[in-house]
Amino acid sequence: MRFPPSFLDDIRARVTISSVIGRKVAWDRRKSNPGKGDFWACCPFHGEKSPSFHADDRKGRYYCFGCKQSGDIFTYLVEKEGVPFPEAVSQLAQEAGLPMPEFSEADAKREQQRTSLYEIMEISAKFFQAELQSARGAKARGYLSDRGLSAQIQQQFGLGYAPDDRSALRTHLAEKNVTVEQMAEAGLVIAGDDIPVAYDRFRDRVMFPIRDARGRVIAFGGRALRPDVPAKYLNSPETPLFHKGDNLYNFDKARAVAHEKSEIIVVEGYVDVIAMSRAGLSHAVAPLGTALTENQLNLLWKTVSEPTLCFDGDGAGLKAAYRALDLALPLLKAGHSLKFAFLPEGQDPDDLLKAEGPESVRQVVAASEPLAQVLWRRALNENDRATPERRAAFERDLRSIINTIQDDVVKKHYLADVQTRLAELFGGGPANQRRSGGAFTPRNPRLRFGQKPWEQQLPVSPQLKALASKPSQTDGAERRARQIVLTFINHPDLMHEFWADFSGVDLISRELDSLRTQILDSASSEESLETASLRTHLSTRGFGPQLARLEAQAKSLNEWHLSPAAAADDARTGLRQMIALHHKAITLDRELKAAEAAFAGDMTEENFSTVQALRDQLSSLEGREAMIDGFGAASGRKSGEVV
To answer: Cα(149)–Cα(153) distance, rounded to whole angstroms?
Structure first.
């Protein structure tokens, strides 16, 4: 069965190579760089002890430097998992959210026509470029020169000129045996039953070719040279090649640099992209005449984890930024967000470049703000907090916006961030607040009137001084980590259900981390993993003494639910609780260390209370491993029973 290349390209654009291979392969966390789409692992095609298998999300390809296996997402499923190619396409199309095409002779003909359209668009691009250098292009060259766009820049971006002639391009294409129907399908001429003679869509305009990710011309943007033209910028219409919400101007050139720098900049238009390039920021792209779309945002996130959106510093720029913020908020996930850079009011990148030079443009980008900060500032600017009721509405509306985030972990951290900001804003209470520009600014009640925070002096008790040097406790976290690892050794059938949890859990012991890597490697290479074969695998790789220590520790602490004899339901219940408690303990321990450091630098009762509260929370986690209703019932035991 032959699938249209365009359909396969659409799947590749939506499904990353790392997500497909990562289902069975444990990526090496030390060598991989997920933020750059760069992943390394021990090769799934041949046995090896050190990772030489490389997957690149940017290119959508994998390659093993050991056995030389290479391919894309389709190749991997066919050659590694033995999936027939049509089934692999169907499986990945479902994952990409794309309906399978229905094939007919008409479909085959349309695919051939699509291939022809690429050729027609390339011919047209060369025609416009030639016209820019001709006598008819003198006015356009003058305009570009006035904008500071040199001949080198014109060539770099393939700029051209559409003559002020209703049939110039149509005639040129007709001489190349291109039919009017093909010209209309490519969006190059305007035709119809009510139009006696088709005519060129673009006339007397500077032309910007728009290319897809593979560098093929798929559309054009035209900038009018006459001031009386209704549309200053005119884009190609939707065509079989061009869907404006799925593409970004200059993405084909920008993504390699963006991948290298781990940064991609989104500006508002073609000339803005070119201005960024002239300022030394060649990794800039732009939407195509519309606000940023979800598909464009996902394309950016496939390139870097935190794209920078750069907007003009006026009202329209702020509105555009807020539209992008509202689009992105529900789609945020761990490690993926946005940054915002704002130009001086009334200036676009080209204006700033001319007025103050490249360094000023680069400084604007370097001063970008995280999405959370822009969200908070918008809330402050758009809400009146003059009364308790309005402050309550302000808090309610802000939390409501954050609740649109679909990722529960990201949502949790945003709510915590907002809680901190609200405490700082309203923390002193109405009697201790003063108005500033319509917003309430909290004041520290411990300060005398007119006293500066750094002038505050508080007595420090011996108990507080002693507390500053008391270290955090990590014994409980280490015990839970041992329990998690041993559960998978004695109950490897749980690997399929908890693969993501096990591969992602934070193991503070390097020894346990190495053991975990070997377990995942073994599980990824065998369809059915048994305890005996896993133990043999680990012992032959020198982990026998570690296994013996884990078993001895579990026995001495009566951790019966970790044994191979424990019922699967009990092992599953215990594992689920251990992972949840471990995540919470690791987070609390990190917060405690930060609080202890803050207390050591500023020994106040407030900082003391924070440290004490965190220590109490950590202490409450200890001894809760088996305190679950029904835990042990499947093994014929009662909760907490000792044998």
So the answer is: 6
Q: What is the mean pLDDT of residues 271-279?
A: 94
631: Cα separation from own chain's centroid: 39
The secondary structure of 366-390, three-state, reads HCCEEHHHHHHHHHHHHCCCCCHHH
Tell me the H-state helices in 133-198: 138-146, 151-156, 168-175, 180-185
Tokens for 265?
A: 């900049």
Contact 307/266 with Cβ under 8 angstroms? yes
For the cut 50, the answer to whether the pLDDT of residue 580 exceeds it is: yes
Q: How confident is the model at residue 619 (pLDDT cuts 50, 70, 90)?
A: low
Give the per-residue pLDDT at 443: 33
| Average model confidence (pLDDT) across the chain | 80
pLDDT score recorded for residue 382: 86
Residue type, 108: A
Tell me how far apart the terminal alpha carbons of the chain are, to the nearest angstrom.
Answer: 62
Check: CB of residue 614 under 8 Å from CB of residue 588.
Answer: yes
CB neighbour class for 325 (10 Å; exposed up to 12, middle 13-18, buried from 19): middle
**Which residue's structure tokens are 């959106």?**
309
Nearest residue to 584 (alpha-carbon basis) of 477, 485, 472, 510:
477
Distance of alpha carbon 159 from alpha carbon 274, whole angstroms: 11
Instruction: Confirm if 160 and 131 have CB atoms less than 8 A apart.
Output: yes
H-only helix segments in 288-403: 294-303, 315-328, 349-356, 358-366, 371-382, 388-402
Distance CA 614, CA 472 (A): 10
- pLDDT for the residue 476: 65
User: Which one-letter amino acid corresponds to residue 608?
Assistant: F
Cα distances (Å, whole numbers) of residue 556 to 550, 559, 582: 10, 8, 21
Q: pLDDT tens across 381-416, in order?
A: 888 888 888 989 999 999 999 999 999 999 999 999
Contact 539, 546 (CB under 8 A): no
Cβ(271)–Cβ(159) below 8 Å: no
d(CA 364, CA 552): 59
SS3 content of the chain, % helix, strand, coil (to 5): 55, 10, 35
* C-alpha count within 13 angstroms, C-beta hemisphere, residue 552: 6
The dihedrals phi and psi of 454, each to the nearest 5 degrees, come to -75, -5
Task: Please work out, in degrees rounded to the nearest 5, the angle formed at the alpha carbon of residue 330 by the alpha carbons of 37 and 22.
Answer: 30
Q: Are strands 284-285 and 265-266 parallel, antiparallel or unpaired?
A: parallel
Q: Is 434 helix (H, G, I), strand (E, B) or coil?
A: strand
CA of residue 510 relative to chain centroid, distance: 28
**Do residues 550 and 532 touch, judged by C-beta distance below 8 A?**
no
Contact between 637 and 628 (Cβ < 8 Å): no
What three-state secondary structure class fits 254? helix
For the stretch 308-334, pLDDT in tens is 999 887 788 888 899 999 999 999 998
CA 291 to chain CA centroid, nearest Å = 19
Q: Report the DSSP pairing between strands 38-41 and 53-56.
A: antiparallel
Give the Cα separation of 199 and 197 in Å (integer).
Answer: 6
SS (H, E, C) 103-139: CCHHHHHHHHHHHHHHHHHHHHHHHHHHHHCCHHHHH
Largest CA distance in the chain: 96
How much is the pLDDT for 120? Answer: 95
Report d(CA 338, CA 329) in Å as an integer: 9
Q: For residue 433, which of 446, 418, 444, 447 has the smallest C-alpha distance?
A: 444
Look up the pTM and report it: 0.55
- With 80 as the cut, is the pLDDT of residue 605 above it? no
